[in-house]
Write a structure and sequence with these properties.
The protein is mainly beta. 7% of the residues lie in helices and 63% in strands. Strands 1-2-3-4-5-6-7-8-9-10-11 form an 11-stranded mixed beta barrel. Strand 9 and strand 10 form a beta hairpin. The longest helix is centred in the N-terminal third of the chain and has 15 residues. The radius of gyration is 18 Å and the shape is globular. 14% of the residues are buried.
């Protein structure tokens, strides 16, 4: 079975349950893959290395890669500050240019609810202006057992506070929702597997787009740090 055949089977139920979209809306079936590796570097400090690949039917395969990392400092048991960088690459049918991004974030945990407030700065080869993005996220985790099994749901919004000559347009750009299952794969490895729905609003003459993705995220804890142990 090909990658895309597997995606179609995995997404059949969510697509069947989704409301019929407007005729002007584009849709795409996708596969999103991510690996995060957490490496403790000092008490209360860890480095998370990130690798991302996104594939879609409309762009005919791999259309985006992201490589980077984020340095996190835990100021309390429930709050972590982070600063990081990502290199974003465009491939195949993706008409966007490669770009560099800086990120700052605050992650706070309140029992089963986790929140993240992230700000991106986008540096684009087609212009000197910096494109800012504000990305609040909230996630609910419901544990099914004491050994790491859980179901989860999350919502993330993307707001662009400024426009640029290279193409960023100010306003509420998209929302991203995920529902899935967290499962332990070992003492230091876990996976989030779920359905991701991303909706890009019609803006600047472009059609709205809804992406239906099988989302697979692997988390590897390369070492232990007392400040980050659960």
């Amino acid at each position: 079975m090909s990658t895309y055949s597997f995606c179609r089977v995995a997404l059949a139920l969510p697509l069947a349950l989704a409301a019929t979209p407007a005729l002007a809306q584009q849709q795409d079936e996708q596969l999103w893959l991510q690996v995060n590796t957490n490496v403790p570097v000092a008490p209360r400090v860890r480095l998370t290395l990130e690798q991302i690949a996104r594939l879609g039917d409309r762009p005919d395969g791999l259309y985006q890669t992201e490589f980077g990392g984020i340095l996190g400092y835990r100021v309390s048991p429930a709050v972590e500050l982070g600063f990081g960088y990502r290199k974003v690459g465009a491939h195949n049918g993706n008409a966007a240019a490669n770009e560099d991004r800086l990120r700052q974030q605050v992650v706070a945990t309140f029992g089963p609810v986790a929140t993240r407030f992230r700000v991106d700065e986008r540096f684009h080869p087609r212009g000197d202006e910096i494109g800012f993005r504000i990305r609040p996220l909230v996630r609910y985790n419901h544990r099914l057992a004491s050994k790491g099994w859980a179901v989860f749901a999350s919502h993330e919004s993307f707001y662009l506070p400024n426009g640029t000559v290279w193409g960023q347009r100010r306003g509420f750009e998209r929302m991203r929702n995920i529902a899935g299952l967290t499962l332990p794969l070992g003492r230091t490895v876990s996976a989030d597997i779920g359905y991701l729905n991303q909706y890009r609003f019609a803006r600047g003459g472009a059609r709205a787009q809804m992406d239906h993705a099988l989302n697979v995220q692997l988390t590897v804890n390369a070492g232990s740090s007392p400040a980050f142990d659960d």
